[in-house]
Design goal:
90 residues; alpha+beta; five-stranded antiparallel sheet; 1 helix; 37% strand; globular
Amino acid sequence: MALLLRPIATSPDDRQATHGEWQVGQIEKRPPLTGTQPRYIWALNGVPAGPKGIRLTGVTGTIDEAEAELKKSWEEWLAWANLSDVKERF
């Protein structure tokens, strides 16, 4: 099953990342520090730390960038954990 990013009902600018029933991450929109650009904070959570160099959190300027970074880190974590993103067969 693939990583699924869906809006959070109470905050439609935020995303919850799930793998099946397991919540593995989130993206939150934050107000800008300066200027007019919002920030998007992404994080993998609920997973043990991976190898040195794997990013578990980050900040981006757009929701698309945050989603891409979170997915990239998730794929790296799966590879490190020797797991795969297997699709269910019914």
